Amino acid sequence: MPSALFNSILTSLFTMKFTDVLDILVVAFLFYKGITMIRSTRASRIAKSIVLLLLVTWLTSLFHMYALYFILNRILELGFIALVIMFQPELRLFLEKVGSRSVKELLGGKQEARPASAAIAAVVTACEKMSKTRTGALIVFERNILLDEYFKTGTVLDAAVSDELLRNIFFPKAALHDGALIIRQSRIAAAGCVLPLSENTHLSSDLGTRHRAGIGMSEASDAVVVIVSEETGTISVAVGGMLKRHLAAKTLERLLVNELVTVKEESKPVRFYQRILGQLTQKGGKL
Hints:
Layout: H1 2-14, H2 18-39, H3 43-62, H4 66-86, H5 88-100, H6 103-106, H7 117-133, E1 137-141, H8 148-151, E2 155-160, H9 163-169, E3 180-184, E4 187-193, H10 209-220, E5 224-228, E6 235-239, E7 242-244, H11 249-260, H12 268-282
Parallel strand pairs: 1-3
Antiparallel strand pairs: 1-5, 2-4, 3-4, 5-6, 6-7
Helix pairs in contact: 2-12, 3-4, 7-9, 7-11
């Protein structure tokens, strides 16, 4: 029996066409991207519950527990609509990312470096000085997802980024100091903007509105958000819903450079798929 199964598998492998291999690689890549997206959000806990529900449903079918299987099966059928409602923020963010990226970027390829070095240096210098004076600040670096909808909540500026201008905007008696400042392509696009608060219920209770708004902005987009606490003067950065706190100026600069300037190399799964596809093409489209 094992020998017959092994021979059957070998026969299937040698009769596979190029389109079959491509189909398998695309599905595997989509699963990889889906797992990566779920793992980095609150959806991971719900995903575990779904897997458990599927396992229980399969066991009820295996042991012929017809009543329980019927109930669980109906729950799974209606669950798709519930999932769309529950994961609306994640689905919206995913679709925005897909629509704002090129095909090469979606496949995990290299991303073009952005001209943000000068802006980063100015932000780091300003944050270091505001940290010493305990001046609150909320600075958003826009990336692929455009943040035009938040501009209307503040004042459009379109000004060069400088240490002096940043500190003047966040000066406690300035008109725009309470809102967020958005940087687009190394220029201050708007200031005094209102950001969405995070919906994460597991955040530390000592985080104020400024930090929750920064985390919320990183959850709703792919932006990098720098926060200076008015109470303690500590510097934090929010990326992808995660908050990194108590950063020194050098650490802040290194983090911003990694997120905004450094060219990202192609991911290992993509290089692996590209190598396999190249070998298949050279062999005439068959294994």
